Amino acid sequence: MLGIKVVLEHMDDDVSGFLEKRSDGWVAGVNAYHHRVRQRFTIAHEIAHYVLHRNKQSEFLDHTFARRNDDRSTMEREADQFAAELLMPEIEVRGAVDNGLRKLNDLARHFDVSTLAMRYRLDNLGYRMG
Ligand SMILES: [Zn+2]
Fold first, then answer.
1. Cβ(51)–Cβ(27) below 8 Å
2. Mean per-residue pLDDT, 54-82
3. How far is the CA of 94 from the centre of ligand 1 (A)?
């Protein structure tokens, strides 16, 4: 997709992935040990770096949500926002809620994301649910 090669690699648990420019093109690495829903978010996050930031840096290393802190760079926040919009488009989230999906777990399953990512997205769109 987009000319990015995605590879699964063994990484420390607090690393979610990376994006880097190699001699033969851009490569997005994903932590092979992480759950599939986290890997999906990581890939979306690395795609965001590629789309938004590839002219600014040629190497991005990403830690997990738990390791990230409040003074994360603008680029990291932009990449998370982009990933959330890609995996949980606003119109689809609102449609799912309107159609009766009101529980965090049900919505997370529907969008195939972690409950953490789903909760951030719902907060962001002004929903409060358990
Ligand atoms: Zn990042």
1. no
2. 85
3. 27
